[in-house]
Amino acid sequence: xxxxxxxxxxxxxxxxxxxxxxLAISRLAPLESADAQCLSFLxxxxxxxxxASTQAACVIVAPAMQALALSRSGGGACIVTDEPYLYFAxxxxxxxxxxxxxxxxxIHPSAVxxxxxxIHDTAVIGALCVIERGARVGAGSVLKARVTLGEGCSxxxxxxxxxxxxxxxxxxxxxxxPASDAAGAGWEKIEQLGAVRIGDDVEIGANTxxxxxxxxxxxxxxxxxxxxxxxxxxxxxxxxxxAMAGCVGVAGSATIxxxxxxxxGAVVLGHLALADGVHISAxxxxxxxxxxxxxxxxxFPIDDNASWEKNxxxxxxxxxxxxxxxxxxxxxxxxxxx
Length: 338
Fold this sequence. Notes:
Low-confidence stretches: none
Largest sheet: 10 strands, mixed
Strand content: 25-35%
Helix content: 10-25%
CATH superfamily of the largest domain: Hexapeptide repeat proteins
Structural class: alpha/beta
Shape: flat
Number of helices: 6
Distance between the termini: 93 Å
Number of domains: 2
Number of strands: 36
């Protein structure tokens, strides 16, 4: 499959320099591995050295990088745009649309769909999916293989749900039973009577679990992006266009605002709130509500990122400070002046 460079310009805009619109592009590739049939991109200026040496036929760049892109040792072209990474994302979508892949059945014959479930005529249901009674899948949504959509849960329009996702498993709800109880010490299950409501244009990565609410519903608003292996506890609400990387855990009844990001492996404890525009670094543990937009990091405890970095730098000096204090303690006391 080849796409003329001009097709990218026609569909996505940008300014083409240094090549004919008829130049054929056979694939998209990173700068370091691209060859003379590839379209690549530069988003971060720290990779300028790769731009100078790449063999790509054409590179998507910001205006500031145009001269460097055109002066490459092997020669080459560039597409100039204010947002190279966004342009690249849309270029991948264009490539995907041009790929001619055989279409399978809209609903795979191995899928198990209860009669009372509602599946839109344009939704796609993959192999071995389970759609329980009262569940709903909106227009244009795609469920890959082995997705489970629990009873009464709903998925909006144009969503992508990857393999192994479970939506609507019971939340983790148990009441402690004392030894004096007739049944003895242990745990009493709290039945999870809510559901999960997922908005439009949501993408959910492989093997992610979103638990149903205990009483009210768990809610994932429009445009949310969840990576693989994310755990969303019962009664959590995730605001529109928030993105969470792999292995994030959000405990029950937490509220995450809109346009937030949560780095891989981070944890948000239960019943906390994050304001709109909060960004959590990878592997952080959110132990308190964060009501002001910004970038936050850490474990001891979480703090605004600038303060956390100062404290982290101080920690590196603790050993030398300890040795200096020990040395001072060994010195004889100075005679006080009379």
